[in-house]
Amino acid sequence: MNTCRKHMHLDTFSAKPPDSSSLEIRWFFSKPVPELNTFIREGFPSKPVSETRTDLYYPIPGREDLSLKIREGKQELKKRRLQGTPLHFNGSQAGYLEIWDKWVLPTELEERRYPDPISLRKQRWALKIAPSDTGAWTARPYATYLTQGIQVEYTALSWRDRAYFTFGLDGFGDIGQAALLNFLALLPPCPELTLDQSSGYPYWIARL
I need a surface site. Which of 17, 38, 139, 177 has the fewest CB within 10 A? Predict the structure, then answer.
C-alpha cells in the first residue's frame, strides 16, 4: 500500500466522530528540566506514581497532524484539527496550543500498513487537575475518572539509548484556553518553555 492510500485510509476513519478530544500544549527537551520535574512530583498534596511503558509510534511522512501509535496493546489515532496557535504566559514563556481528536482503532486497521515504528520507552509522572467552584485547582491521581480537567505530565523518554524529556498539559471536557492559562500561571520560571521547543509528538518524532 502506497503512502497516499495510507493517508486516505486514516483520513477516512478520522472523518467519524472522535472518541475524545483534548486541548494540548507540549514541549520536548534534550536534557532534564528539574524545575518541571519537581513541579509535578512535589508541587501538590497528591503525589504522582511513576509509570513505565513502551509506546510504538508509526511516523506518517508529511503529516504532522496525524499520530498513529500502539499503547498497551491498543491502536490509537490522533488528528490535529488546526495548526497550533502560539500561547504566551508568565511573561517570556510560550507554547503552541493544539486541539487533537482521538480514536481507538478497530483491529482491522493493522500496524503492518505502517512499517518502521519508533519505539519510545517512557517513564511518566502524571496527575489530573480538577477545577473547583472557587477557581482553585485540586490534584488527583492519574487513574481518577474526571469529566473535565487538565492532565499534566513530565515524562523521561528513551529512544536508541538516547534520552529526551517532555512536559505537557491536556485539557479535556469543557476545559478551554482561559482555564489552561490559569493553570500555566502556576508553572515555575523555566527558560526551556519556548515556542522553539513546543510541538506535538508527530512533529518531534519526524525530527529524531
Answer: 17
Q: What is the pLDDT of residues 139-162, one digit of tens each?
A: 999 999 999 999 999 999 999 999
Can you state the percent helix, strand and coil of the chain, rounding each to 5?
A: 20, 45, 40
In a domain, 31, yes or no: yes
Which structural domain, as residue segments, surrounds residue 155?
21-205
Q: Is the pLDDT of residue 52 over 50?
A: yes
- DSSP secondary-structure letter at 207? T
Q: What is the domain-level CATH number for residue 82?
A: 2.40.320
- pLDDT, one tens digit per residue, over 1-18 is 444 445 557 778 788 889
The DSSP letter of residue 46 is S
3-state secondary structure 107-161: CCCCHHHCCCCEEEEEEEEEEEEEECCCCCEEEEECCCCCCCEEEEEEEEEEECC
Number of domains in the chain: 1
C-alpha grid cell, residue 152: 499534566
> Is position 14 within any domain?
no
Q: Which residues pair with 131 in a beta bridge?
A: 137
Q: What is the CA radius of gyration of the chain?
A: 17
3-state secondary structure of 44: coil
- Report how far residue 79's alpha carbon sits from residue 81's, in angstroms, rounded to the nearest whole number: 6
- pTM metric for this prediction: 0.91
For residue 16, tell me if it sits in a domain. Answer: no
